[in-house]
Design brief:
Elements: H1 5-9, H2 21-29, E1 35-39, H3 47-52, E2 56-61, H4 64-77, E3 81-85, E4 99-103, H5 113-126, E5 132-138, H6 141-152, E6 158-168, E7 173-182
Parallel strand pairs: 1-2, 1-4, 2-3, 4-5
Antiparallel strand pairs: 5-7, 6-7
Domain Methyltransferase: 36-131
GO molecular function, one term: methyltransferase activity
InterPro entries: Methyltransf_25, SAM-dependent_MTases_sf
Length: 184
């Protein structure tokens, strides 16, 4: 299998640390306990804790090293979590998916803006009615406004479930947590 940049990062166990406290709190408190599609799941920083909360999780990442580690941990912990190697931008969002999670996948840098906009538009289009889109983004007004603008111009109606910040002490940073539910 072709080696990708993140493979070398994932040689260190738990490279990106623990999940954001606000993200765990959100998933703990929402009523839906369905299937989560964690796009860009890496080693399972979010997927494994979500499995522990009772969610079925499908994690997709282009790093076979990260996915192998995720699957080993899921098996060891007997969690309903499955990692798959794939291109997150092209991965289909089937009707079984209740929640799509992007954690630190979007940055909206100038060179990535068109590609990331298409990626979000694809998610918004393919997500079923009643489905939830959860995004974690490094705090920054321009990035946050860009995401909200993409959502506002989509042809679908959305209910905002979460629009808040969470402190991530491990990286000395704050992240914007934004969760929306697609109206049926």
């Amino acid at each position: 299998m072709k080696k990708v940049a993140y493979d070398s990062y994932y040689e260190e166990e738990n490279y990106f640390g623990n999940p954001y406290p606000g993200l765990v709190a959100f998933f703990t408190n929402i009523e839906i306990r369905g299937t989560v599609l964690d796009l860009g799941c890496g080693q399972g920083r979010d997927a494994l804790p979500l499995g522990n909360l009772g969610y079925k999780v499908i994690g997709v990442d282009h790093s076979s090293v990260g996915i192998e580690q995720l699957n080993q941990q899921a098996k060891l912990q007997k969690l309903p979590v499955e990692g798959r190697v794939g291109n997150v931008c092209d991965y289909p969002i089937s009707a079984e998916i209740d929640i799509v999670l992007l954690d630190s996948m979007l940055h909206f840098y100038k060179n990535d803006l068109a590609k990331e906009t298409q990626f979000v538009e694809k998610i918004l289009t393919e997500l079923k009615g009643g489905g939830i889109f959860v995004n974690c983004l490094l705090k920054g007004q321009q990035r946050e406004d860009t995401l909200k603008h993409i959502i506002e111009k989509s042809p679908f109606e959305w209910d905002i479930l979460l629009d808040d910040y969470t402190e991530y002490k491990e990286a000395n940073a704050e992240f914007h947590l934004f969760a929306i539910k697609k109206r049926s």
